[in-house]
Amino acid sequence: MRITLLLIACVIAYTAVAQPANTMRVASYNLRYNTPNDGADAWPNRIEMVKSLIRYHKIELFGTQEGLRGQLNDVAQLPGWAFVGKGRDDGKEAGEHSAIFYKKDRFDLLTTGDFWLSETPDKPGKGWDATCCNRICTWARFRDKQTKKEFYFFSAHFDHQGVEARRQSGRLMVEKIKAIAKNEPVIFVGDLNSTPDTEQVKTIQASLQDAYQATKQPPYGPVGTFTGFKSDAPLNDRIDYIFVSKSIDVLSYAALTDRLDQRFPSDHLLVVADVVIK
């Protein structure tokens, strides 16, 4: 399958930069849930694009948002990949997930867990002024087989309607990350439905580095990360993020605009960073 790359010269430069051997390529990707209402952009028409995107850009570890269990199983058909994460509706497989995918030849999964973005994080439920949906965060502790270093990875999806729910979700994420990971290295990715000027993003930035700001190379690609499947989307608003603890260096950051036959693999861009645990 041939993927049409926008600004191909820049993409080649991005992929060709020499990186230290202990570099990890991590990402955040809102997959857009599987609904026939998307017509030509419905999941059955996108799955091979998503898999090709992950494979071509040599992603090694990424968090997802919105994926239903069947979608996650589809992505996991990529050889050598596995995922963790529970459904937000019942804590099992029902509803959307904030799953974490990892390459089994690079990482050992040590432990994993989930919590809900609500006043009762230990059980399924809506939080604060959220009216539509339960929101969930999945986390995992990994050991890098190359370096033997251990770290935590979190994937979350903030509410799209509740202003207070997003604000409180930012506070809860900081509290939970500190309680779960303590002083270990942390990578937190997600669709926060929030721009960088909001209180919830600033709350997280006070504890973790924003990869867009911390990258040693200039960020590649547009600032905005949501396309709505539209090729002429302005891409001004950044709502998908990669955060890392201060014990992690960010070598590069990119929001990738790859398309196949003028169609996007998802309604969000794949956000990628090359990182190194010090």
From TrEMBL:
Top-level taxon of the source organism: Bacteria
Keyword Translocase listed:
no
Q: Does the keyword Hydrolase apply?
A: yes
Q: Which residues form the signal peptide?
A: 1-18
Annotated ranges, domain Endonuclease/exonuclease/phosphatase: 27-268
Task: Kindly state which keywords UniProt assigns to this record, in alphabetical order.
Answer: Endonuclease, Exonuclease, Hydrolase, Nuclease, Signal
**Which Gene3D superfamilies has this protein been placed in?**
Endonuclease/exonuclease/phosphatase (3.60.10.10)
Q: What is this protein's record name?
A: Endonuclease/exonuclease/phosphatase family protein
Q: Which SUPFAM superfamilies match?
A: DNase I-like
Q: Which organism is it from?
A: Spirosoma rhododendri
Lineage, broadest ranks: Bacteria, Pseudomonadati, Bacteroidota, Cytophagia, Cytophagales
Q: Which CDD domains match?
A: EEP-1
Recall the GO molecular function terms of this protein's record. 3'-5'-RNA exonuclease activity; endonuclease activity
